[in-house]
Amino acid sequence: MNGDIEKIMISEEQIAVKVKELGGILAEEYRDKNPLLICVLKGAIIFMADLIRQMDIRCEMDFMAVSSYGSGTESSGMVRILKDLDTSVQDRHVIVVEDIMDSGLTLSRLVELLRHREAASVKVVTLLNKPDRRKVEITPDYSGYDIPDEFVVGYGLDYAENYRNLPYIGVLKPEVYAK
Ligand code: 5GP
Ligand code: MG
Ligand code: MG
């Protein structure tokens, strides 16, 4: 285990089981719809890569980068598009792939934007969900694990751009934040 990690919240094996389950559900639901999966950079990149390999259907992917958090752990409440899609979403069945739904601000803005661009449908799949932290009324359409209000890293999730490469979801030791 990485020396900066206090505890593993969700193991590599637990993640794999859940991703397979979610991929299976999405494949069923979108079988003849050629969905466009939108990875919200950078946090969702690992989840996206694993998820699409569990979806044995015709589908496409694209990437979008938005900023809502700085380098710290608190939401700024602002959502800015840093990198937009290459693909038009008009009349497409869109699945937004996120690492974690926390305040819900990022996803509610994104969903709003994609609807405005006349997507045929917009649904959200998130690996992690912190329902206690919600500031806007939004529920993920597909969700892996509900977690308590703790800041987590790994499997794409960062603290100051580090720890994304950990294969599990973990909690950092308090002294790491003091550095
Ligand atoms: P929101 O508050 O808008 O729902 O979440 C926006 C983004 O904040 C998430 O996509 C994620 O990148 C980041 N975030 C929220 N909670 C956590 C967390 O516990 N750990 C990490 N590393 N990022 C988080
Ligand atoms: Mg994210
Ligand atoms: Mg981050």
TrEMBL record:
EC number of this enzyme: 2.4.2.8
Stretches assigned to the Phosphoribosyltransferase domain: 14-159
Keyword Cytoplasm: yes
Reactions it catalyzes: GMP + diphosphate = guanine + 5-phospho-alpha-D-ribose 1-diphosphate; IMP + diphosphate = hypoxanthine + 5-phospho-alpha-D-ribose 1-diphosphate
Keyword field: Cytoplasm, Glycosyltransferase, Magnesium, Metal-binding, Nucleotide-binding, Purine salvage, Transferase
Enzyme class: transferase
One GO BP: GMP salvage
SUPFAM superfamilies noted in UniProt: PRTase-like
Cofactor dependency: Mg(2+)
Pathway where this protein functions: Purine metabolism; IMP biosynthesis via salvage pathway; IMP from hypoxanthine: step 1/1; Purine metabolism; GMP biosynthesis via salvage pathway; GMP from guanine: step 1/1
CDD domains xref list: PRTases_typeI (cd06223)
GO molecular function list: guanine phosphoribosyltransferase activity; hypoxanthine phosphoribosyltransferase activity; magnesium ion binding; nucleotide binding
A cellular component term, taken from the record's GO annotations: cytosol
Role description: Purine salvage pathway enzyme that catalyzes the transfer of the ribosyl-5-phosphate group from 5-phospho-alpha-D-ribose 1-diphosphate (PRPP) to the N9 position of the 6-oxopurines hypoxanthine and guanine to form the corresponding ribonucleotides IMP (inosine 5'-monophosphate) and GMP (guanosine 5'-monophosphate), with the release of PPi.
Entry similarity comment: Belongs to the purine/pyrimidine phosphoribosyltransferase family.
Protein name: Hypoxanthine phosphoribosyltransferase
High-level lineage: Bacteria, Bacillati, Bacillota, Bacilli, Bacillales
